[in-house]
Specification:
By secondary structure, the chain is an alpha/beta fold. Helix content is about 35%, strand content about 15%. The chain is built from 20 helices and 23 strands. It has a 7-stranded mixed sheet. It starts with a helix and ends in a 7-residue tail after the last strand. It binds thiamine diphosphate. Thiamine diphosphate binds next to helix 5 and helix 16.
Length: about 625
Amino acid sequence: MKHLAEMLLREEPFSEIVMGNTAVVRAMVEAGTRVVSSYPGSPTPEIAVAIKAIPREKRPFYFEFSTNEKVATEVAYGASVNGHLSTVFFKSVGLNVASDTFVQLAHMNIIGGMVVVVGDDPGANSSQNEQDNRHYAMMSYTPVFEPASPAEVYIYYKEAARLSCDRKMPVILRLTTHVCHAKEKVAFSEWRPKAPDNTPRFDPANGPYIPIAASLVFPMKRKALLRLEEIRVWSEGSQLNQLIDNKNLEMGIITSGLPFMSVMDVLQRAEKKPDVLKLGIVYPFARKTVADFLKKHKQVKVVEELDDVTEQAVKAIAFEEQISVRISGKIDHEDWVGEYTPDKVYEVLRKTWPELLPDKPRERALPSIPLRQAQMCPGCGHRSAFYAIKRALAETDITVADIGCHTLGFLPPYEIGQLLMCMGASTGMGAGLSLFNQSRKVVAFLGDSTFFHAGLPGIINSIFNRHPITLIVMENGTTAMTGHQDHAASGRNFNEITDKIPVRQVLEGLGVKHIFETDTYMQSRLSELVREAVAINEFSVVIAKHPCMLKLTREQRRKSAHIQRHVKIDPKRCQQIYECVEKFGCPTFTREPDGAIETNLDLCIGDGSCIQTCPAKAIQPSISTGTELIR
Ligand SMILES: Cc1ncc(C[n+]2csc(CCOP(=O)(O)OP(=O)(O)O)c2C)c(N)n1
């Protein structure tokens, strides 16, 4: 971390192998960014990890994790109209949450400049969909820069920041999962720190900043359109759009971002390589650049991940400019799905040009690797909660999941959570499910970070409209799924100790009459409370809490000597009832071919939450320093 901080603040030029998510932080520093905000979500949380590596007193900009993406966008916007270059970053679906604010940005005179860094997730590696945020860009008249590698992330951010400051408009830097996470040697420039300018520059005369009714909205919209057109003209000469000239007058490929890398990889095998136009500015479309490329080729293939955004634009340009060229883009639905890895691009290209690439050499069949199912960590409080809650619910009850580590409750053996939508949606969906439903109780689940992020409006709605559902708040004191970021109830923000906003007190303040609370390791008590809550025909809440054990054990290991606690199975007592593997489901336990249960010491953290689950009392606490398997 010390090395990372030193590198991010180095004044002389240097080269280093870094992730895209790290390169963007160095770019922020060099560009003179003053305010950065975010809400965590893959593939972007490592941007905050790099920021955290810089000690607060040395950090050249202010950073915060806000309560959600919309608030984060507002914080960055507020800073930018006060004259400070700002950046907000979040994951793909974060833009849905930010959208009400985001779609207004291009209407405003953003005097300090503002870069919106979006981490899209083709392949749905860690998201509930594959949404293509270029659509939002078009809807809001916002330019999009799309780098293909960590080195480009660095260059493109600086260019986006420069342009945003010059034109006083927002610019999107669209990253995708593997651009964020890929590592590459990047040549960084020098950084000459300047004395910070803390003059508040907000002046309504720089506006208007009030978009209300046609008389104000229309001029603002016209200005946004004009700026977008200016960017288009500028982009025609920009080095971010790049031509790879293979002297092929027959075939050309238009592509961008990570698919460009895959195209270049795959084309190594082509005897006659098509020319390639790589668009670094993917919106607005560099009309003349594209038209010139189309004119030079008889056939052009658009290779783009996710939706057919570029394809439609390219076809429209060809039509309007009356260019005679055969354009093909997506052939079937599979072309809309998944990441454009080299293998995928190979298939995509062969659908249009079967002769372009040689058949793949028959690959040696690799031994198949058993799939490892996602699961909660050993000791996870959510496991104890689901084990206990399952005992309290009727088969017919409807369970509504939310997004977080606790989503994994939908998997066997618990199978709790029959519907999932997006962050904070469980209470609202649960309310809907309770309508015209006298016979099946609805139980919704929500994590504590989500509670503050987007959970509260659904909760308030259930109180306000008297929806008789039970909400179980899975409180583990952190935003676990995305890497343990603090939230409003943690008592810490990114920068310092702060006042806790306890979930229970918020609920009390909202007037929830039935609030129950227990540690999830108190499994019988939790079952009892859930039964009680579900029996009430009004909105009720059970706070099922236990600290995130992954976070806690890591902290404890950092502090204390390396004593490993674990549990062991007493073979004399074990009656092979298999409650531990079949119902509690801790990955620590495995069933051996002879039917015995083994404990894997590499996994077991010795939390002991399993001990109470064994009807034969065969699970016992133990201490060791070894890593052997014990029976
Ligand atoms: C709109 C949106 N922003 C961010 C994310 C990334 N994300 C997935 S789960 C999660 C929060 C998890 O925290 P919490 O609700 O406390 O549940 P836990 O994982 O701690 O059980 C986040 C931020 C997302 N899926 N959607």
